[in-house]
UniProtKB/TrEMBL annotation:
This is Uncharacterized protein. Residues 124-158 are annotated as: Disordered. It comes from Fusarium sarcochroum. Residues 124-146 have a biased composition (Polar residues). It comes from the Eukaryota.
């Protein structure tokens, strides 16, 4: 969205809100003294649309001020406590107004499980009774502010899904409960304050079935004795809310949000199921039998896998051959998601790095910075003469390989790099060992480690479509999963530069906020340019992407650069660390909706790229 379009959009929203609540635009500006921030105005527009008739403006404003005061008093982490208004204020006000509209039923008297997902029909639960589940839980009315994001058609039906997704977990993660919020969300069906159609639909029966089919790498139900680790046994009293805690992978909730739109159906399996189908040569028949477009969703990026860990019954080539055979026989398209070419680019890393280097040569000056890099090929090192720390990375046929930090003259680089940096002499022994296969065939390359990645941090930006959706920053040792992670806030990240370099001056809040705007512009430009340059390896970018971003130096004039760009199917969302509120599924919701809309448009014969890349008001919040 250009700045001119953004200003027009905000002006239109202000007029609409002022007219709806019956005050002048000048009064509205006094109440909400904020500039720009289209996301905030869009949320406020939807909030007033939902509640003006039932509650009136005074009640809405009171709820907003209460939420604002709660945040400014420091009771909410991961967001600015000094700004007059934040989107999270509107989210929390919506929850408060929802509770006023409809009080939750008494958990002791109401035990009917909610049926808000289209998939939870009588047919799905045929033959089940209360004794089939470990427990039931109260039906909680969904928050209108969240429910409106995924409102079904007015006739109450969601139609027949035109695309079927067969998801297979390819990770080696033994138990998602061991994750610390990077790739998982916590679901507690007993919690009377759960909000959102998808969250409220996750009954104990649903979660138990998910764990059985997909494995504990996607769903770990700590309330079931058969899956409780010895170390976890007896932690919670049997009837406490925490005894029902279930950890669910973010990708599962994302696909459930996509399913909730009505245009996509989905099923979940583990790697053993896929290996068995390949071994029996029955995968082609299985995929063809659906009689509709099928996506075999097999993200392999994380956790890092090797071919030996995948097992002798599985290899990417066999999977590709099975899908190609099924697609050739079927009347409907059957394909991998991500595509083979994109998955390979994501796993090997080198092709992405080469494209980043090439695009940077033609980028606007402020977006053109790139760290020095050498691809490790035989001959003169492209970083010859560089002194300092380097990041060594490697390609892999199954996933991005290891990332290691070395000093540029470390002799250990002899064993992996074929280039000659000038710090050491390569002997024939090393070359012969690589040729004869004593070393892995993975390709290693090395890159300048920009010091700011160590002392300032690395930003993780989630893009949904072409929108900068949210971001967090990781502080501490580069590559260390125990490093501190928090939401990106202008005052915290781009204002007090002197903390990192005493020779650099701090800037004003306005200048810090301008830097955040520059970050947003940077992400949009690079996302659009990469799709334009090589659409076949950036197909998933049309739905979402996570950009891992560093800065060239300490100071307000620092330039941003992309360090890595994991595709969304394999990227950690880090939802818990973003500027969101419980239950932290906003990223899953946004990406799931975008994914469903993208493939709904393909089935309808439209362009894969949405007509309005920036997501219109109706796309995000429903029609007025």
């Amino acid at each position: 969205m250009t700045s001119d379009r953004a200003r027009k959009r905000v002006a239109s929203l202000k007029r609409r809100i002022a007219q709806r609540i019956g005050i002048s635009q000048s009064e509205l500006r006094k109440t909400f003294p904020i500039q720009g921030q289209s996301t905030l105005w869009e949320k406020l527009n939807k909030l007033t649309s939902n509640y003006i008739d039932s509650h009136g403006w005074e009640v809405i404003l009171d709820a907003l001020k209460t939420a604002q005061q709660t945040r400014q008093n420091g009771f909410i982490t991961g967001c600015s406590h000094s700004k007059p208004w934040q989107p999270i204020d509107i989210q929390n006000a919506a929850k408060s107004l929802s509770n006023i509209a409809s009080s939750a039923p008494d958990p002791q008297t109401s035990f009917e499980a909610p049926r808000t997902l289209a998939s939870h029909t009588q047919a799905d639960t045929a033959g089940m009774n209360d004794s089939d589940s470990l427990y039931s839980f109260p039906s909680i009315p969904s928050s209108p502010s969240r429910e409106s994001l995924v409102a079904p058609p007015e006739d109450g039906s969601q139609g027949v899904p035109g695309v079927h997704v067969v998801f297979c977990d390819m990770t080696q993660f033994e138990d998602i409960a061991k994750d610390r919020g990077f790739r998982s969300l916590t679901v507690n069906p007993r919690d009377p304050f759960f909000r959102g159609s998808v969250m409220n639909s996750l009954t104990q029966q649903t979660l138990s079935e998910l764990q059985r089919k997909a494995g504990r790498g996607l769903c770990s139900n700590l309330s079931e004795p058969m899956v409780v680790d010895e170390s976890r046994a007896g932690i919670w009293p049997e009837n406490s809310p925490n005894s029902a805690t279930v950890h669910v992978h973010a990708i599962v909730l994302t696909l459930l949000w996509a399913k909730h739109q009505g245009s996509i159906s989905v099923e979940f399996h583990d790697r053993d199921w896929l290996e068995d189908m390949l071994r029996k040569h029955s995968l082609e028949d299985y995929l063809e039998a659906f009689g509709k477009q099928v996506l075999l969703f097999t993200p392999m990026r994380r956790l890092h896998m090797t071919e030996s860990q995948l097992g002798s019954d599985f290899n990417p080539a066999a999977l590709d051959a099975a899908i190609e055979h099924a697609n050739a026989r079927s009347e409907h398209e059957i394909k991998s998601y991500p595509s083979r070419s994109e998955a390979q680019a994501d796993r090997t890393r080198t092709s992405d790095m080469r494209l980043l280097e090439e695009v940077a040569k033609h980028a606007p000056e402020k977006f053109s910075f790139r760290p020095r890099l050498c691809y490790g090929k035989a001959g003169e090192c492209q970083m010859k003469g560089f002194e300092g720390q380097v990041i060594e990375r490697c390609d892999s046929t199954t996933s991005p390989g290891m990332t290691v930090i070395y000093e540029s003259d470390d002799v250990r680089l002899n064993g992996t790099l074929e280039c000659n940096s000038g710090y050491f002499r390569r002997t024939d022994k090393f070359s012969t060992r690589r040729i004869t296969g004593s070393y892995r065939k993975d390709r290693y390359f090395h890159q300048e480690l920009i010091p700011t990645l160590l002392n300032w941090g690395e930003i993780h930006v989630i893009m949904v479509g072409s929108e900068y959706f949210c971001a967090c920053i990781r502080h501490g040792k580069y590559g260390d999963k125990d490093s501190f992670v928090s939401a990106v806030i202008a005052d915290r990240c781009f204002k007090e530069w002197k903390r990192f370099d005493e020779n650099v001056e701090n800037v004003t809040t306005a200048e810090a906020e301008a830097k955040v705007k520059e970050l947003e512009e940077f992400c949009r430009w690079w996302r659009d340019e990469l799709i334009k340059r090589k659409p076949e390896v950036f197909e998933t970018f049309k739905v979402a992407v996570r950009f891992d971003i560093g800065i060239s130096k300490i100071g307000a004039d620092a330039q941003f650069f992309i360090n890595e760009m994991p595709r969304w199917p394999g990227a950690d969302f880090m939802s818990f660390f973003m500027d969101f509120s419980y239950p932290y599924d906003e990223i899953c919701q946004a990406i799931g909706q975008k994914f469903a809309a993208e493939y709904e448009s393909i089935v309808a014969g439209e362009s894969e790229e949405m007509k309005d890349e920036t997501m219109s008001d109706s796309d995000l919040y429903g029609d007025d």
